[in-house]
Amino acid sequence: MDMTIRPVVLADAGELLDIYAPYITDTCVSFETQVPGIEEFTDRINNIINNYPYLVCEIDDGIAGYAYASRHRERAAYRYSADVSVYISPAYHRQGIGNALYTTLFDLLRERNIYTVYAGITLPNDASVGLHKSLGFTEIGVYRNVGYKLGKWCDVLWLEKPLKEYDKPKE
Asked: What percentage of residues in the chain have a pLDDT greater than 90?
């Protein structure tokens, strides 16, 4: 298996949406309830890459998964933190792709002066919780019954991971 981690390009949007759509339609992993159109999804990618890394994992000339960072909160003091997300095609689960994507993403975030990353995981999702904990994330709390999807109330577990020592940030 020849795996390549690279920055996203807007032409990847269709393949990424193919990976993401079943998480919307078939699971509570994403709290979206409608699959976005390709134009909207492309705009989302474009908005993220202006400020944060967005990576894809290619295997044999196809995209197996992707990961990206995004703004944690709006206020200026939050600028040293980011939220992270990873989505892997089911055909490639448990093959180290999430680990590879996140490891590269975290290195890029450190270079951008990001000190802490956060991930929200809809429960239950043992595979995602396991991935995040294996990478050093720790649980910080659960939002109980925070979303309603597919006929049920869903909890979201929040985790954090420090990326660098908490010194005085360089502006």
From this structure: 96
Q: How many domains does the chain have?
A: 1
Is 130 part of any domain?
Answer: yes
Is residue 1 scored above 90 in pLDDT? no
To the nearest whole percent, how much of the chain has pLDDT over 70?
Answer: 100
Q: What is the pTM of this model?
A: 0.95
Cα→Cα distances 82→13, 74, 107, 122, 166, Å = 22, 11, 13, 18, 15
Assigned domain for 169 exists: no
Q: How far apart are CA 135 and CA 63, in angstroms?
A: 22
Identify the CATH number of the domain in which residue 120 sits: 3.40.630.30
8 assigned to some structural domain = yes
User: Could you give the CA distance from residue 143 to residue 124 in angstroms, rounded to a whole number?
Assistant: 13
Displacement of CA 92 from its chain's centroid (Å): 16
Q: Would 167 be classed as within a structural domain? A: no
Contact 84, 69 (CB under 8 A): yes
Instruction: Please report, for residues 25, 89, 102, 105, 112, the alpha-carbon distance to residue 22 in angstroms, rounded to integers and kept in the order given.
Output: 5, 9, 21, 24, 32
